[in-house]
Amino acid sequence: MFFTIILYIAKRIRRLVSMGIEDLSEFEKKLYEYVRTNDFESKKWSTPEAAKMLGVDEKTIYEALSNLQKYMKGKVYIYYKDGGLRVAAE
User: Fold this and answer.
1) What structural domains and CATH numbers belong to the chain?
2) Which member of 21, 31, 65, 83 has the lowest number of beta carbons within 10 Å of its beta carbon?
């Protein structure tokens, strides 16, 4: 029983580790780099500003952020602090 549980956990971890940057579209990779290279922990995230900087509409930013959160678990953090949304990436 214990061995079965360990195998199950190992398979889940392997699956999660295999998901990552290669699962992202070209735009999602671009957004990931934008988030990673800017300090949206000390300053508030602005979707309109990100859309303008990256040359897309706000809906595209929201969809891409959602996918980043899905595929880059443990590497992208979205949270609320001091009256604003914060976005960080490792």
Assistant:
1) 20-89 (1.10.10)
2) 83
